Amino acid sequence: MKIIKDIDEMKEYSRQARREGKKIGFVPTMGYLHDGHASLIKAAREECDIVVISVFVNPIQFGPEEDLDRYPRDMEKDGKIAEDCGADVIFTPDRENMYPVGYSTYVDVTGNITETLCGLSRPGHFLGVATVVAKLFNIVGPDMSYFGQKDAQQQVVVKRMVEDLNMDTGIRLMPVIREEDGLAMSSRNTYLAPVERGQALSIYRSLLRAEELVTEGERSAEKIKKEMREILEMGPDLRIDYVEVVDGDDLRKLENVRDNTLIAVAAFIGKTRLIDNTLIRFKTGEDV
To answer: What are the DSSP calls for 52-107, one per residue?
Structure first.
């Protein structure tokens, strides 16, 4: 496995791969890899000739009160996981190369998809996400890029950017990977104290209850959200950011669950903000 830090070297590596007719798969990450990232790398390995992952903690997607400085980093561990999963390259550029002095160009995806859910409580976050992902796509030049469903809103924003700007990469959405007890895997889970870790499970339990209600025939978004909130509010250290029922493609709020409905949660456990979701899919004719 090759580690590349220089942008021009990464671009040349990708150009050479394309000259050889190889398909490039790309997994953008902020590092501190876990089994969720591993699942993306393995999927890329199965479908592509070359697998590139990026490890870059993107400063412009963090707000002034957020956890940029304490965001977990472990490049040695990341390298081992990436290599074990079959990655060919880790691209890990320096901040100064990605955003040199005088940098002034940003990608701003506007409208409902960035103004709802995490966009409400993290202003500017998706501008940072879209900008860095656009830069990474331009540098790596992937044929297919892989994202996890846990960050469902991010995937919707990136997909819109790709379509609107006629970018060449495809977007593959992969399922949420969970710990044995159901907690969605996240680099931020390492922040949780043992008591907080136990309370964080209420996020998953609330989503399980939502799925149960839908299976039982409930379609009212308000009724589903009410029961989810009741579960979440049992945790004394848990503060709800949002519980929403939205369309899985454009993130518009829904009054009733239907096919391709995203049920999404964000909550603070102490100082740690976690997100999770479930995507409701029906067979034809089942959503009425």
So the answer is: EEEE---GGGS-TTS-TTTS---HHHHHHHHHHTT-SEEE---HHHHS-TT-----
Q: What is the pTM of this model?
A: 0.95
Chain-wide mean pLDDT for the chain? 96
Q: Which residue did the predictor score with more confidence, 235 or 246?
A: 246
Cα 251 versus chain centre, distance: 15
How far apart CA 256 and CA 222 sit, in angstroms, is 8
Residues classed as catalytic:
37
Residue 223 pLDDT exceeds 80: yes
pLDDT recorded at residue 197? 94
pLDDT band at 185 (very low <50, low <70, confident <90, very high): very high
Which residue has 């700007």 as its token pair? Answer: 165
Domains and CATH numbers, the chain: 2-174 (3.40.50.620), 187-280 (3.30.1300.10)
CA distance 221 to 27: 33
C-alpha distances in Å from residue 249, one per residue of 61, 125, 153, 155: 22, 19, 9, 10
Query: C-alpha dihedral over 200, 201, 202, 204, to 10 degrees?
Result: 120
